[in-house]
Specification:
This protein is α/β, with parallel strands linked by helices and 710 residues long.
């Protein structure tokens, strides 16, 4: 278990408020008790299990679903009574136990339905066995409205039957009496009532001696008396007798029912425990949603490496007031163990330190923390805190004495698994002496490999951090133009206290400020001024970097847009290429189909023709062409020289020219879909769309010269 020193430091870093807010999210007393008694752990596996269970429940809530954990009654007393012999639970108590079992059944069914989705939470129910006999026993005795059934026992059925009969008889007799007295004018306005469990008539006081019966009382004014008519006395006695018998039988039934479920005391206690645990985890999940809690990575070694971390209470407060909360990013680990934070008062030094301490406590309690999910946090065995004035009047300790008392404990017991937080180390004493002691204490803690944060205004500590391995400076940024803190932690450089600047903002006369500068140790003032100038330059550089980062981000977006457009153009080109390839493949497929058709024609012609040699030549010409392209081109040239394309609708006897291989044939027959064209002496069935009508070109003849003489 994590050891915290001193115990009052828990309130200092406001962990008590965390517990109160957590308890407010609990629905059950058991959940509230767990929130109040929450303990921080130092066993990594246990912390991880608690965090993962909370994360599971948070994911369930974020999805809009919910675990049917609706049982909220506190039945610890009832569960204890089950272990006491001859104890009898009331109907209400038995119903509460029944509701508990039904709730557990619903939860088990829900996890079975979502099998494997929330395995960390499901481990809670790994050893839960639903005892179906419990609701069976109770349902045989109690009806859905919460009353003991007439059939709970034979005796009860008989008693209630007789009781109903007698009450019905009493009602008839009483109504007769009411009518009679009303007719006589003896009845008051209210006519009847019940006193001492007996049914009575309301009579005007002046007639009380006329109506025979038992006087049970009178009104406050004394004008009305309540009399039990003598005609109903015996009936009322009989009814009272049956009612007492009914109560005895009901007690007997409740006793027997209680003893029947007593053997299930242990599983019922386990059910109740699981209900409380689930309610507590649900509260942790709801609380985490309030402050954006996440689960960081857990380190095997003690360290604090948080990114964009918030103080949860400050975040909730600012959220309610619609104000911003400034995150912190820092790393405390093996190479960089101690952080010395400096800067102006009210600049956020103490808040930063409290944030680290509170988040570490929350983590080791199994609570999700408001950090970036990339953060990495380790597990510590000790948390030592010195924040604020620990002066004790009872022990007559001064502020500085109390400070040194805490520091003695730190240097005596700190080790490599200790996280320490010290606010204003060395304050309360002479600056030179206090600064010297502070430096010696930090050196000791560094040698012990402890991890921690120290806030200070001492210049010697700032210088020490700059030259000592494992110790690093951190400064709280300050806007000098507005003379206002920026609440931003800058790692790697110390912060100026801005003493004179803040004094100027406070309205202190310039003469006093200048005199204070003269009285200030020259080297001290020079160093603080140097820190001041460094911070100003760093602030300007930070602004420039911010602008540069924005330009870089904008350039990345433009580059992404360009790449998107380039990808679209590339996709368009690929699409066009594929389309062209598909067209080429279609042409090849059409060509192959045409060749197949012609080959079949050659086979048929071979069977019919007597001149086999001509068929062979035609087949060779068709199937075994050499230099196809050149041959087609040659055929085209020859055809162009000899024939002229005229087009039009072909008729039998027309010369036809093939559009592909430029062969010339004669149309010999016209059919519906196929036409016959003779090429030489071989007829072929063709697609007429592949052919065009041509006519022979006229041959130009040169006229001969006349050699005869006249």
């Amino acid at each position: 278990m994590l050891q915290v020193y001193p115990q009052q430091a828990i309130a200092t870093i406001e962990f008590d408020k965390i517990k109160s807010l957590l308890a407010a999210h609990c629905k059950t007393d058991a959940g509230k008790e767990r929130a109040a008694a929450i303990q921080w752990q130092s066993q990594r596996s246990l912390i991880e299990k608690n965090l993962l269970q909370t994360l599971d429940y948070k994911n369930i809530l974020a999805s809009g679903d919910y675990i049917p954990n609706d049982f909220t009654k506190n039945i610890k007393k009832e569960l204890k009574l089950l272990g006491i012999p001859n104890a009898a639970l009331s109907v209400e108590q038995l119903i509460a136990i029944w509701e508990l079992t039904l709730c557990i059944r619903s939860i088990l069914n829900w996890f079975e339905k979502n099998n494997g989705l929330f395995k960390h939470l499901a481990l809670l129910l790994e050893k839960v066995n639903f005892e179906k006999e419990i609701p069976t026993i109770l349902s045989e005795v109690i009806d859905p409205k919460g009353f003991i059934k007439d059939t709970a026992s034979k005796e009860l059925l008989q008693i209630r039957s007789q009781l109903a009969k007698q009450r019905n008889e009493l009602r008839k007799v009483f109504e007769t009496i009411i009518r009679k007295l009303n007719k006589q004018g003896y009845l008051a306005d209210i006519s009847e009532g019940f006193l001492n469990g007996r049914r009575t008539v309301a009579i005007f006081a002046e007639h009380k001696r006329i109506v025979k019966g038992i006087l049970h009382g009178e009104s406050d004014s004394g004008k009305i008396v309540f009399i039990e008519p003598e005609e109903t006395i015996e009936l009322n006695n009989i009814i009272n007798s049956y009612e007492r018998a009914e109560q005895r039988e009901l007690h007997k039934i409740l006793l027997e029912t209680t003893q029947a479920i007593a053997p299930y005391q242990v599983p019922l206690q386990f059910y109740f425990q699981v209900i409380g645990i689930l309610d507590f985890i649900r509260a942790k999940a709801l609380f985490a949603i309030d402050y954006n809690g996440l689960m960081p990575q857990l380190s095997q070694h003690p360290q604090v490496n948080v990114m964009n971390a918030y103080h949860p209470l400050l975040y909730l407060q600012n959220k309610a007031q619609q104000k911003p909360t400034y995150p912190i990013t820092l790393a405390l680990q093996k190479e960089q163990r101690i952080l010395i934070i400096s800067g102006p008062n009210a600049g956020g030094k103490t808040v930063t330190m409290k944030t680290v301490g509170l988040l570490q406590l929350m983590l080791q309690c199994g609570l999700l923390v408001p950090v970036d999910a990339r953060s990495e946090m380790g597990i510590f065995q000790q948390l030592m805190i010195h924040i604020g004035d620990t002066q004790s009047i009872e022990q007559e300790l001064s502020t500085y004495s109390a400070h040194l008392k805490d520091m003695k404990y730190f240097v005596d017991f700190a080790n490599g698994k200790t996280l320490f937080l010290i606010d204003e180390l060395g304050s309360g004493s002479d600056p030179n002496m206090g600064g010297a002691f502070a430096e010696a204490i930090i050196e000791n803690l560094a040698q012990r490999k402890s991890i921690g944060i120290v806030t200070t205004h001492y210049l010697n500590l700032k210088v020490m951090a700059g030259k000592t391995n494992g110790i690093v400076n951190g400064g709280m940024a300050f806007d000098e133009d507005k003379l206002a803190p920026l609440y931003q932690l800058v790692i790697g450089k110390p912060g100026s206290s801005y003493t004179f600047e803040i004094a100027k903002r406070s309205g202190l006369p310039d003469a006093i400020i200048e005199r204070a500068k003269q009285l200030t140790d020259r080297n001290h003032f020079k160093l603080d001024k140097l820190l001041h100038q460094t911070e100003l330059q760093n602030h300007k550089l930070s602004n420039n970097n911010k602008v540069l980062n924005e330009l870089i981000e904008k350039n990345k977006q433009l580059q992404l847009q360009y790449e998107t457009l380039a990808d679209k153009e590339k996709f368009k080109q690929q699409k066009e290429t594929i389309k062209l390839q598909n067209e080429i493949k279609k042409e090849e497929l059409d060509y192959l189909r045409d060749m197949e058709r012609k080959f079949k024609q050659i086979i048929q012609e071979w069977k019919r023709s007597a001149n086999k040699q001509e068929v062979i030549q035609s087949a060779e010409q068709l199937l075994f062409k050499k230099k196809q392209i050149q041959a087609n081109a040659s055929m085209a040239n020859k055809a162009d020289k000899r024939f002229q394309t005229v087009g039009g609708t072909p008729k039998i006897g027309d010369l036809m020219r093939n559009k592909i291989n430029h062969q010339i044939g004669t149309l010999s027959e016209i059919k519906d879909k196929k036409h016959l064209i003779k090429i030489g002496n071989l007829p072929f069935q063709v697609q007429i769309e592949e052919w065009v009508v041509v006519v022979p070109k006229e041959t130009k003849t040169v006229p001969k010269k006349n050699t005869k003489k006249n």
